[in-house]
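re the bet — no i am not wrong, look at it urself. input seq straight from the record:
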Amino acid sequence: MQKLFIYIYLLISIQVAAQSFKFVSYTTKDGLSNNYVENVVQDKTGYLWVATRVGLNRFNGTEFKQYFTYPNDSTSLPFNNVLSLFVDNDNILWLGGYGSMIASFDNTTQIFTLHPIENTPNSHDLDISAIFSNNKNEICISTGNGVFVLRQGIFVHDSTQIPQSNVQTKIIAANGTQWLASQKGIIFIKQSGESVLFNTDNTPEIKSNSIKLIFKDRDNNVWFGTHSGGLIKHSLTAENLQFYSSQNIQIKNNISTGFCADLNNKLFIASDGGGVSVIENNKVVKHIDISSPNSTNSVLDILIDEKNTLWMASWNTGVFSMNDKTQKLQSYSNNFLDNGIANNVKTIATLGDTLFCGTYSDGLVLLNKNNGSIRAYNSSPHSAFLKTPAYINDILAASDETIWVASTRGLFRYKDGVLSQYLLDTSASYKSEKLMVWALNEGSNGTVYAATAYKAYAINKQTDRATELELGITPPYDVKMILEDSKKRIWLGVHDNLFVCKPDGSVSSMKLTQSDFPIDIFNADAIYQAPDEYMYIGTQEGYYSFIPDSLNFNQKAPEIILETFKLKSIAQIPGKSSIIKKHINQVETIVLNHNDFPISFTFSAINFNHQTAIKYAYMLEGIDSKWTTLNGKNELTFHSLQPGTYRLKLKYKFVWYME
């Protein structure tokens, strides 16, 4: 008889971690077997196990798999009311219940085993409050009658062991903040000692104020188990990413377009409709209003020059300055209009006595800061700006006194009075003359970074070549902001994801919204690192503030786990009479007959943050020569195959953009 062999090979494409500072709730509506959560653990595979009063649950980030007691199945869950959980060094899951019930679950065989407890005085009907291992790696159970230790297949009483509790009431984060479980809700204690209570009154995601336990997983998420309110998740990783809007700080408009700091370390925040807000100690101490009867209060870019003078670019009112000593507001609107130049200024940069102004339709404008005179680069021989209206998105005054101009017509540079078009690497797929450049920044060693509508580039001015920054996602992707911080990490804003490229070549990411689809939230070039190391990022909804070292990104990519294998739509359980002897994720080869079809596999890259952003692909070597994308599905079915040997490959990537 001809046989068919399938070899299974799993790949990981990239590692990304992502999540915002919010609570997420999981209840029976999401597939949890019961809303009374007694315990939570994570096994070595990455699964989260949730014990409830009615059943055991396994969570992969997408769905809960429920386990219940079935009277006619001795391998099923022995008791439905699961009280305590523990994972040992061999990845065996141990379960404790009410009334002296202790069992184990072997992921290899998918079988539950009930274990006996020594018949000692007062040992009957004891609740297993905790399961742990001692210094000899023996499995121990903590009860109201002391500790029992597993020896030679039976739990025996051992008075030398100290009882333990399975209820964790406190988690301490890396920054010294604390999370506590209480009967009144979730308590957050700041580094200052100030406490904040999250409960049903102020947090919709919390369904019950009776918080029984806390558990921290290996990806730095903290999980809260409740009585009657299900499971709650919070990310410790993003805890130091502070978000400010008009709701929690008195800025006048949430569309934050630019940042700068003066010599006294006061922070200035520009907004599209709210003028400029001056911040000290996270409090607004002043508003700068540039509105007039004929214009809005829209400031699109700001900077502080070497004389500590504040300069502001505005929509419909040109450019303003404010002297630090006199605090007098000076308008240059008429200077633009008198030279036939529209007053819509998007971006500004300063070099010596010249303010370089990027306009929406009239190209590059040079303003003499001493006398207000105007010189415009919007006519021949600067014809590159005249092919279509030249919308300038950003201007960079580099340390070598070169001015770089990012526009809808590509990247330009101004040196010694000459404006020329700069082509990115001629081997690149996207040429500068076709490229929209959103933002520019200068890093260490004079490197110029360019954020474009297709990719991000690092320009080496000595070799005059541009190198694409590798983010681990498939281009094109729209990069709106880019900055190298004081530790030479490169930060980029892509749709609603904050990427960081580290000097060692690794890349991590944090998603700043809960949306499963990409949303453009960043404002072009609205990223700034202040002298005190704090970084500020402007969005359409407010601004983020954080110290780069305080964000602990996940460094490990989740592995792809095979979860089920079906023959003719029937799930295969490991066993002597089964086609698989171990769990499908531990099987390397499957031998099939011609009448075993159809066959199907389900799989998952276990991720508790944004599972729906994962896109899977497969290749069946022996038939396929390239990868086939599954469009987000995590199930693969083959209805028939010719006799032969095949190798199944699976991989995934995080998709932060629409294709």
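see?? The chain is about 0% helix and 45% strand. told u. also Residues 109 and 260 are 61 Å apart (CA to CA). so pay up
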